[in-house]
Amino acid sequence: MRIFLYCLYAGILGVISFFTQEIVTYVLLGFILIALNNVLSVLKEISRKLDEKS
Length: 54
Description:
- The protein is mostly helical.
- The protein is built from two helices and no strands.
- α1 (2-20) packs antiparallel against α2.
- The protein is elongated, with a radius of gyration of 15 Å.
- The protein starts with a helix and ends with a helix.
- The mean pLDDT is 84.
């Protein structure tokens, strides 16, 4: 499911950057989305471990 979402995000950003002709925006927004998804997965894992302890 995650791979599908990454592909969907990349496709949407690609279409937007194609029409606006801003490739740098495409790359930077892609990095931001990947970083935010990684932060979210780490926070979910921490929350899950804290719930198991209590």
